């Protein structure tokens, strides 16, 4: 991750990392993949979303964190679900979508 941040600080795109790439699709059935494995991929996606948020890739952060929150709402139990939820809220705020959330009506 540090190497990715360094590349972003130099203005170049981050190198692809096998640590942050891949994983099941957002709509994948946790029973088919295995809940423990799905939680691992979700935690990795949350970390990638946070990294993207920190480096200014708001669209990428939104994509990753929304996928994680969708899995949480679908019943996936993560050790720290608040991280994905909180950073998705920050991403939405930075994108100017603060009032579009489900609780805003």
Strands, helices and their partners?
Elements: H1 2-9, H2 30-33, H3 35-54, H4 58-73, H5 81-94
Give an overview of the whole structure.
- The protein has 105 residues and is mainly α.
- The chain has a domain at 34-97.
- The protein has five helices and no strands.
- It has helices at 2-9, 30-33, 35-54, 58-73, 81-94.
- The chain is elongated and about 35 Å long.
Question: What distinguishing features does this structure have?
Answer:
5 helices; elongated
Number of helices: 5
Radius of gyration, taken over Cα atoms and rounded to an integer in Å: 14 Å
Shape descriptor reads: elongated
Largest sheet: none
Question: Topology as H/E string?
Answer: HHHHH
Please state the average pLDDT score.
Answer: 75
Structural class: mainly alpha
Low-pLDDT residue spans: none
**Content of β-strand:** under 5%
Separation of the first and last Cα atoms: 38 Å
Name the helicity range: 55-70%
List how many beta strands DSSP finds: 0
């Amino acid at each position: 991750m540090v190497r990715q941040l360094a590349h972003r600080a130099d203005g170049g795109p981050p190198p692809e990392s096998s640590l942050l790439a891949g994983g099941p699709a957002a709509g994948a059935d946790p029973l088919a993949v295995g809940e423990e494995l799905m939680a691992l991929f979700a935690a990795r996606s949350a970390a990638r979303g946070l990294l993207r948020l920190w480096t200014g890739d708001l669209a990428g952060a939104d994509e990753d964190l929304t996928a994680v929150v969708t899995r949480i709402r679908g019943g996936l139990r993560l050790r720290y679900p608040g991280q994905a939820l909180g950073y998705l809220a920050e991403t939405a705020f930075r994108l100017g979508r603060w009032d579009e959330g489900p609780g805003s009506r």
